[in-house]
Amino acid sequence: QITLKESGPRLVKPTQTLTLTCTFSGFSLTTSGVGVGWIRQPPGKALEWLALIYWDDDKGYRPSLKSRLTITKDTSKNQVVLTMTNMDPVDTGTYYCAHRIVVAGIALDAFDTWGQGTMVTVSS
Amino acid sequence: DIVMTQSPATLSVSPGERATLSCRASQSVSSNLAWYQQKPGQAPSLLIYGASTRATGIPARFSGSGSGTEFTLTISSLQSEDFAVYYCQQYNNWPPVAFGQGTNLEIK
Q: Which of B5, B11, B75, B84 has the highest CB neighbour count under 10 A?
């Protein structure tokens, strides 16, 4: 059974750096095809994909936020970490990590298992 | 960037009736399209991938169709638990992976 759980601060001040950790179980980020993504959702708004990291350490970022985002993995701890610099109130929302679907050995950039999400508020 | 446009924004349907939700891509995404359901206060859950393949455990009343730029999610006979927000997502050309703005399926 695959599970993911996000952790990090609930409140950050403008200009600070946000660090979120996704701790997962039920899969390994050393297995070919496996990936973990981060997606956020401002209150009452749509989902917005942020970043994705693959088993081979390849990474993808939302172009409009690429300069502010860093995604890394720690396979020994089964964790993926997302950092976002220069936080602004518009970055307020729920942040999810999610597992990339692998079906019959074929990996797709859709997400079959999500964490519960963690709400982050940016305010002074 | 590919833009995903969902319609309508809100759909009011009575329980037991059929619901049809649309998703349009600004350029072809082949069949690399997923649908998610999100209930209030919960994370999204995957319904459909590959435009038409139901994810594990998804009831047969959910079906997806389409390819290229036009996609449809159909719920054949709405149950009370189906009233939620639905998102489409393309994963053909990225970054960025793109979600639509959502369709709120509400009880009529």
A: B75
Looking at residue B93, its pLDDT comes to: 85
Q: Do A116 and B1 touch (CB under 8 A)?
A: no
Over residues A26-49, mean pLDDT:
96
Cβ of residue A112 closer than 8 Å to a chain B Cβ: yes
Among all chains, which residue has been given the structure tokens 């298992």? A113
Looking at the complex, report in whole angstroms how far the Cα of residue A74 sits from the nearest Cα belonging to chain B: 23
CA A62, distance to chain mean position in Å, is 12
Task: List the one residue out of B71, B89, B64, B95 whose CA is nearest residue A62.
Answer: B95
pLDDT bucket at A119, cuts 50 / 70 / 90:
very high
Q: Which of B45, B32, B47 is nearest to B94 (CA)?
A: B32
**Could you say which residues of chain B have pLDDT below 70?**
none
Q: How far apart, in whole angstroms, are the C-alpha atoms of residue A88 and residue A100?
A: 28
The dihedral over CA atoms of B24, B29, B30, B32, expressed in degrees to the nearest 10, equals -100
